Amino acid sequence: MTEQAKEDVSEEGPQSETAAEKTQAAEKPVDEVTALREELDKFKAQSAEYLDGWQRARAELANARKRFEKERSEAGQLANNTLLRKILPVLDDLDRAIKTVPDDLRQHAWATGVSLIQRKFQNALDSEGVKPIEVKPGDAFDPNLHEAVTHESSPDHTEGKIIAEVQTGYTFNGQVLRPALVRVAK
Asked: Nearest to residue 81, comparing CAs of 127, 130, 121?
């Protein structure tokens, strides 16, 4: 080959590589941008997944707190109910003691003291939400509030009406703590 041909070939070679390099260089930024966009999309999806997981965990924690608070409140209510059911017979005994004090002894200091204790006890229960169930002879029997201890014939009352109260019933914060024991006409 002549010198001229060699120069032409050598000139064509570097020129062809330069064109190829230019094509690669032009494709390289496009590929790099595409790769960066794909990576960005991947991180956005991962970020959304983490945010969703965090929000779910936060909601679960809030629900668990509410559930624990409700359970704690119910346990406290149950403990109060249990304690009050144990105390009510003491109040019943005080009531019976006051009702059976003979008239000539009502003015004695000990009788007055027992009466005062019974009143304070009842006031303390009232302040905590314990209320007696009102029962009057002639009221209709309500199985939600009353428990029948006897069914008796009564000329003064129609069937299903209360003849008399045997034991006072109580409610606690609107719920029946102990039903009233009653005699019912049949």
From this structure: 130
Query: What are the two backbone dihedrals, phi and then psi, of residue 129, each rounded to the nearest 5 degrees?
Result: 100, 10
Going from the first residue of the chain to its last (186 residues), give the mean pLDDT of each consecutive group of 10, the final group possibly shorter: 51 53 62 90 94 95 95 88 91 90 88 90 90 91 92 87 92 91 92
Instruction: State whether residue 32 is helix, strand or coil.
Output: helix
Q: For residues 121 and 91, is the Cβ–Cβ distance under 8 A? A: yes
172 C-beta neighbours (distance < 10 Å), count: 18
**Taking Cα atoms as reference points, which of 52, 72, 76 lies closest to residue 64?**
72
Give the pLDDT score at 4: 53
- Number of other residues whose CB lies within 10 A of the CB of residue 88: 18
Task: Determine the distance from the C-alpha atom of residue 129 to the mean position of all C-alpha atoms in its chain, rounded to a whole number.
Answer: 20
Q: Is the pTM of this model over 0.90?
A: no
CA 113, CA 101: separation in Å to the nearest integer? 12
Domains and CATH numbers, the chain: 131-186 (2.30.22.10)
Instruction: Tell me the CA distances in angstroms from 44 to 36, 37, 51, 56, 167, one per residue in order.
Output: 12, 10, 10, 18, 71
b/e map of 73-85 (b: 16 or more CB within 10 Å)?
A: eeeeeeebeeebe
